[in-house]
Amino acid sequence: xxxxxxxxxxxxxxxxxxxxxxYIVNILMGICILGALYPLIYVISASLSSGISVDRxxxxxxxxxxxxxxxxxxxxxxxxxxxxxxxxxYMLAGTVYCMFVSVTVAYVMSRKTFIFNxxxxxxxxxxxxxxxxxxPRYLNYINLGMSDSRIAMIIGFGVSAFNIILIRNYFxxxxxxxxxxxxxxGATEAQILRKIYIPLSAPILAxxxxxxxxxxxxxxxxxxxxxxxxxxxxxxxVLRRLLLYSAENIDDTSNEIINxxxxxxxxxxxxxxxxxxxxxxVLIVYPYVQKHFTKGITLGGVKS
Amino acid sequence: MKRALSLLLILxxxxxxxxxxxxxEAKNDDSANVESPVESQVESNIVYDGTFSKIVKEPTEISxxxxxxxxxxxxxxxxxxxFYEEVTGVKLVGTANPNVDDITGLNIHATEGxxxxxxxxxxxxxxxxxxxxxxxxxxxxxxxDMMPNTKNFFENHPLGKQIYEASVTADGKLFLIAAAERFxxxxxxxxxxxxxxxxxxxxxxxTDELEKVLMAFKDNNLGAGGITVPFVAKHxxxxxxxxxxxGARTESRATGRVIINDDGTEFYHGWSTDEFRHAxxxxxxxxxxxxxxxxxxxxxxxxxxxxxSDRGGFTVWSASTIGFNKQPNMPEGFELVPMLPTSYDGVxxxxxxxxxxxxxxxxxxxxxxxxxxxxxxxxxxLTEEFILQNAYGIIGExxxxxxxxxxxxxxxxxxxxxxxxxxEYNNNHKTARHDNGFLNIGLSFDVIYDEARYIxxxxxxxxxxxxxxxxxxxxxxxxxxxxxxxxxxVSFTSDEQDEINNIKTNLEFYQDEIFSEAITNPYxxxxxxxxxxxxxxxxxxxxxxLVEIYNTALARxx
Lengths: 304, 558
Hints:
The complex is a heterodimer. Chain A is built from 15 helices and no strands. By secondary structure, chain A is mainly α. In chain A, helix 4 crosses helix 15 and helix 12 runs antiparallel to helix 15. The longest helix of chain A has 35 residues. Chain A is globular and about 75 Å long. Chain B has three domains: 173 residues, Periplasmic binding protein-like II (D-Maltodextrin-Binding Protein, domain 2, 3-Layer(aba) Sandwich), CATH 3.40.190; 236 residues, Periplasmic binding protein-like II (D-Maltodextrin-Binding Protein, domain 2); 91 residues, no CATH class. In chain B, the strands form five sheets. In chain B, strands 1, 2, 3, 4, 5 and 13 form a six-stranded mixed beta sheet that branches. A four-stranded mixed beta sheet of chain B has the order 7-10-6-11. Chain B has a three-stranded mixed beta sheet with strand order 14-15-16. In chain B, strand 8 and strand 9 form a beta hairpin. The relative contact order of chain B is 0.14. The chains are: A mainly alpha, B alpha/beta.
């Protein structure tokens, strides 16, 4: 229980300068929080406003001409649900696959008695320093038949050297005596990994899972190059296309008058509605891993 | 021992990678000596007679990379694709990536070696010509006997000869067919009639009058909430649409910033003339005195921002801007009226009219395994029935013939299709059509001997605001009241095209940067030393050399 009397006593004992400093810090933090929160509030408000009011810049804080038109349009659009489901699939399947690969590779890298330990460590680190570049990578993916394939998008992008190093470092920090005891009891490598390393590594595993999940959810570049079918596109591609298409086409020679229906959504509000909906999975996942996050980052970064 | 084992592992991996790569030489040798079974099958399968009907005996498919306007691509199994397959027996398999922009999509396809049979790009003309010069496409002259529509078009259409000259290379090869579209105005000046009435002035006829009108809008603070933007613009409006109001020709639709002089004898760079310097200085002065918005280089949609909010007075933009007059919730009395470009030194000038050869290129990939089939399919793209229906809809389903006016057949959207557009596409006809595969690839609809016209559901032919603007301008072009920037066909050698592409990218990047700097800084900065430095740097980047290449090509083509 917080000792409020001691807190008050401490506060009274603070010098005037420290009190003022405290207020200044609080004000600055408040400004930072507002700066971070306001765009989110604006996006939510704009998604709930009419298209005309958003285009006219009338939305500042609260929705203007409140309408759920953009959300109704999206929820009635199969393409949106398909892309949303694709994003969820890529995120979940991708995270599971990435974690499987990362944990097993990190385990091998942490076992100093393994004969090729140094070589594997070198190869993994090497990929962090040097990359073939976009075009060779693209051609490699095409030649491997990874164009327009869901499974290929998961398998082809499974390994992050940085995350493997994080997990490896955490494994290195675990007490060696546990492994020795398990080995003496006749445990196999798989059992050591499954029953000792993984249970003790919850913080780093949660952290790295979050990294993979967020990276998968937010990524669009390789999806835009390799996925052509609309049925396989993730949400970020749909959002990007909406952003690109809604930009005014300076070369428009069609002279086609586009009529706007009053009070309805338009491309702008649909864009904002997609942004809001794309935040939801992140908001759901994050609280569960938050408690592990800070611990995982710092412990993973420190070599024992 | 460990080191040796590591080296052994690396060697094994390397050998494995090398071993996995395909044997290109063997493949090439085989293809040179043995006739492809696909080709021989295709040869006997073709029954094309030059009309939009059955092309093949047995159903087959052909791959088409066709990209226009970013995410509009030929899609396999689109509504139009299925119609085409039903009529001709050929399934069009779309291979373009809709998720990347046009040039990225084309370049990605090029890195794969143009594996598709037919390649079409609506906007990346320079890139397509460059690839053609590097041998990416077949010479269509070899297949002309199988392409009666193409031959007929080149020989008999009023624009056929010019399109042929625009398509053929300096040494007579026909790698690409230039797409074309009807000559018409696109970006026109539009001014607030209600604001003119408030300040008691008429539609300005000269640029001096225009400046007085715009300053009157500003000085009388006609904009709502104390914000008045007399001239609503974006950066490209200043670069492309505004110089002509100030007496400068700076670009042509056909050849970009390198333009031909009046008598067609010599090319020059539109951004190197005294007229351009004067126009730049005036635009900078207009920026200083508040005729433009200070945020014009960063605003996203200034038309949507300033007209509905009753803050904008004038613009030079696509004719569709007149549509604001009919939009809901516009300010009371809001009325934009079109006007001819204001005259400067007695001349009204327009450089935004479309040029027939602007719209793109199409060809057959040299790596196609179905070149003859691709040739007849390409030829079918040039039939009247294909062009009309590919652009607007299938007759009987999306389109119906409603009238004939002076020999012109008038086609209109059906009610059912119109209802679908409203319900599923937010009333956006273009998106609705493109999403269903009606892509307007190849030739633009109205180029066909002017025998047909398309109008939207409920419209009366020739009576929309756009029709009125177009006929006003076409009349003005015809009588010479408005001069438009001419274009001339030139074709380049492969080396020349290489050099043009290299210079143009760097030059435009530099000039666009300098342009922004000149506009946003005080106009008095544009003095002799500034100008001389700009010309010197532009020439270092390659401006003079670029013009030289064009003039060499011009001399050769004569």
